[in-house]
Amino acid sequence: MLTKGQAEEGAMREILAHSSLASIRARFWIETVAFVGAIACALALGVAAPGAFAGVTAEEPEPGQPRLPSAIRLQTYEGMITDTKCGAKHSAAIGETAANCALVCVRGGEQFVLVDGEMIYLLEGDVAVLKRAAGRRVRISGRLNGKTISVTSVVTA
Protein backbone atom coordinates (compact mmCIF):
# COMPACT_ATOMS: atom_id res chain seq x y z
CA MET A 1 0.00 0.00 0.00
CA LEU A 2 1.06 3.54 -0.68
CA THR A 3 1.77 6.01 1.99
CA LYS A 4 0.11 9.36 2.01
CA GLY A 5 3.30 11.06 0.74
CA GLN A 6 3.68 8.60 -2.09
CA ALA A 7 0.07 9.07 -3.13
CA GLU A 8 0.47 12.82 -3.19
CA GLU A 9 3.70 12.53 -5.17
CA GLY A 10 2.00 10.26 -7.73
CA ALA A 11 -0.88 12.66 -8.07
CA MET A 12 1.54 15.55 -8.67
CA ARG A 13 3.35 13.56 -11.35
CA GLU A 14 0.07 12.83 -13.05
CA ILE A 15 -0.94 16.53 -12.95
CA LEU A 16 2.45 17.59 -14.32
CA ALA A 17 2.32 14.99 -17.08
CA HIS A 18 -1.19 16.08 -18.02
CA SER A 19 -0.29 19.82 -18.02
CA SER A 20 2.85 19.13 -20.09
CA LEU A 21 0.82 17.27 -22.62
CA ALA A 22 -1.74 20.10 -22.75
CA SER A 23 0.96 22.74 -23.23
CA ILE A 24 2.61 20.68 -25.97
CA ARG A 25 -0.74 20.40 -27.79
CA ALA A 26 -1.42 24.13 -27.38
CA ARG A 27 2.06 25.02 -28.61
CA PHE A 28 1.60 22.79 -31.66
CA TRP A 29 -1.63 24.59 -32.62
CA ILE A 30 -0.16 28.05 -32.01
CA GLU A 31 2.82 27.24 -34.24
CA THR A 32 0.54 25.77 -36.91
CA VAL A 33 -1.70 28.86 -36.98
CA ALA A 34 1.35 31.17 -37.13
CA PHE A 35 2.86 29.14 -39.99
CA VAL A 36 -0.39 29.14 -42.00
CA GLY A 37 -0.77 32.90 -41.39
CA ALA A 38 2.76 33.53 -42.68
CA ILE A 39 2.03 31.51 -45.83
CA ALA A 40 -1.22 33.42 -46.41
CA CYS A 41 0.59 36.78 -46.09
CA ALA A 42 3.31 35.65 -48.50
CA LEU A 43 0.70 34.51 -51.05
CA ALA A 44 -1.23 37.78 -50.73
CA LEU A 45 1.95 39.78 -51.27
CA GLY A 46 2.86 37.58 -54.23
CA VAL A 47 -0.52 38.24 -55.84
CA ALA A 48 -0.63 41.99 -55.10
CA ALA A 49 2.93 42.93 -56.08
CA PRO A 50 2.68 42.14 -59.83
CA GLY A 51 -0.56 44.14 -60.06
CA ALA A 52 1.06 47.12 -58.36
CA PHE A 53 4.08 46.98 -60.65
CA ALA A 54 1.85 46.62 -63.72
CA GLY A 55 0.04 49.83 -62.74
CA VAL A 56 3.33 51.71 -62.47
CA THR A 57 4.73 50.40 -65.73
CA ALA A 58 1.48 51.04 -67.63
CA GLU A 59 2.20 54.77 -67.42
CA GLU A 60 5.61 54.41 -69.03
CA PRO A 61 5.70 55.18 -72.78
CA GLU A 62 6.84 52.56 -75.24
CA PRO A 63 10.46 52.80 -76.41
CA GLY A 64 10.87 55.49 -79.04
CA GLN A 65 7.65 57.29 -78.02
CA PRO A 66 7.82 60.81 -76.57
CA ARG A 67 6.93 61.12 -72.91
CA LEU A 68 3.76 63.20 -72.50
CA PRO A 69 3.62 65.73 -69.65
CA SER A 70 1.40 64.85 -66.74
CA ALA A 71 -0.70 67.99 -67.27
CA ILE A 72 -3.31 67.97 -70.02
CA ARG A 73 -2.02 69.78 -73.08
CA LEU A 74 -3.47 73.05 -74.28
CA GLN A 75 -5.73 72.47 -77.30
CA THR A 76 -7.64 74.65 -79.75
CA TYR A 77 -11.34 74.27 -80.54
CA GLU A 78 -13.54 76.09 -83.05
CA GLY A 79 -17.28 76.53 -82.89
CA MET A 80 -20.06 78.73 -81.60
CA ILE A 81 -20.46 79.88 -78.00
CA THR A 82 -24.00 79.33 -76.83
CA ASP A 83 -25.76 77.91 -73.76
CA THR A 84 -26.74 74.49 -72.40
CA LYS A 85 -30.47 75.09 -72.92
CA CYS A 86 -30.54 76.13 -76.57
CA GLY A 87 -27.34 74.61 -77.95
CA ALA A 88 -27.08 75.42 -81.67
CA LYS A 89 -30.84 76.05 -82.02
CA HIS A 90 -31.99 79.26 -80.37
CA SER A 91 -35.68 79.88 -79.84
CA ALA A 92 -37.21 82.18 -82.44
CA ALA A 93 -40.15 82.71 -80.06
CA ILE A 94 -38.26 85.24 -77.94
CA GLY A 95 -37.27 87.25 -81.03
CA GLU A 96 -33.63 87.70 -79.99
CA THR A 97 -30.32 87.18 -81.74
CA ALA A 98 -28.26 84.10 -80.91
CA ALA A 99 -26.02 86.26 -78.71
CA ASN A 100 -28.92 87.78 -76.74
CA CYS A 101 -30.66 84.41 -76.44
CA ALA A 102 -27.49 82.83 -74.99
CA LEU A 103 -27.06 85.71 -72.54
CA VAL A 104 -30.69 85.48 -71.41
CA CYS A 105 -30.37 81.74 -70.86
CA VAL A 106 -27.07 82.11 -68.94
CA ARG A 107 -28.64 84.77 -66.71
CA GLY A 108 -31.41 82.23 -66.11
CA GLY A 109 -28.93 79.67 -64.76
CA GLU A 110 -27.68 77.86 -67.86
CA GLN A 111 -23.96 77.43 -68.62
CA PHE A 112 -21.91 78.51 -71.62
CA VAL A 113 -21.07 75.77 -74.11
CA LEU A 114 -19.09 75.50 -77.31
CA VAL A 115 -20.92 73.78 -80.16
CA ASP A 116 -18.33 72.26 -82.50
CA GLY A 117 -20.18 70.28 -85.14
CA GLU A 118 -21.84 67.39 -83.27
CA MET A 119 -19.74 67.93 -80.13
CA ILE A 120 -20.90 70.14 -77.26
CA TYR A 121 -18.37 71.17 -74.59
CA LEU A 122 -19.13 72.93 -71.30
CA LEU A 123 -16.99 76.05 -70.88
CA GLU A 124 -15.24 77.16 -67.69
CA GLY A 125 -13.38 80.45 -67.59
CA ASP A 126 -13.75 84.21 -67.46
CA VAL A 127 -17.51 84.80 -67.70
CA ALA A 128 -17.05 88.36 -68.97
CA VAL A 129 -14.99 87.10 -71.92
CA LEU A 130 -17.49 84.34 -72.65
CA LYS A 131 -20.39 86.85 -72.54
CA ARG A 132 -18.66 89.09 -75.11
CA ALA A 133 -18.29 86.11 -77.45
CA ALA A 134 -21.78 84.63 -76.90
CA GLY A 135 -23.58 83.75 -80.13
CA ARG A 136 -20.41 84.09 -82.23
CA ARG A 137 -18.08 81.68 -83.98
CA VAL A 138 -14.83 81.52 -82.02
CA ARG A 139 -11.50 79.79 -81.69
CA ILE A 140 -10.95 78.73 -78.06
CA SER A 141 -7.73 77.56 -76.45
CA GLY A 142 -8.02 75.51 -73.30
CA ARG A 143 -7.60 72.22 -71.52
CA LEU A 144 -10.19 69.49 -72.00
CA ASN A 145 -11.25 67.44 -68.98
CA GLY A 146 -14.02 65.04 -69.96
CA LYS A 147 -16.59 67.23 -71.72
CA THR A 148 -15.48 70.48 -70.06
CA ILE A 149 -12.97 72.95 -71.51
CA SER A 150 -11.10 75.21 -69.09
CA VAL A 151 -10.80 78.24 -71.36
CA THR A 152 -7.51 80.15 -71.48
CA SER A 153 -8.26 82.37 -74.50
CA VAL A 154 -11.11 83.23 -76.88
CA VAL A 155 -10.67 84.72 -80.36
CA THR A 156 -13.70 85.53 -82.51
CA ALA A 157 -13.47 83.98 -85.94
In short:
This protein has 157 residues and is α+β, with helices and mostly antiparallel strands.
Would you mind describing this structure in some detail?
By secondary structure, the protein is an alpha+beta fold. It has helices at residues 4-57, 98-107, 127-133; strands spanning 75-83, 112-116, 119-124, 137-145, 148-156. It has two domains: 1-68; 75-156.
Features:
157 residues; 5 strands; 24% strand; 2 domains; single chain; five-stranded mixed beta barrel; rod-shaped; alpha+beta
Q: How much of the residues is beta strand, in percent?
A: 15-25%
Radius of gyration based on Cα positions: 38 Å
Round the mean pLDDT to the nearest integer and report it.
78
Q: Identify low-pLDDT runs.
A: 55-59
Q: Please give the number of β-strands.
A: 5
Structural class assignment: alpha+beta
How many domains is the backbone divided into? 2
User: What characteristic shape results from the CA principal axes?
Assistant: rod-shaped
String of helices and strands: HEHEEHEE
**Biggest beta sheet attributes:** 5 strands, mixed, barrel
Strand order in space, largest sheet: 1-2-3-5-4
What is the count of DSSP helices, taking H or I runs of 4+ residues?
A: 3
Percentage of residues in helical conformation: 40-55%
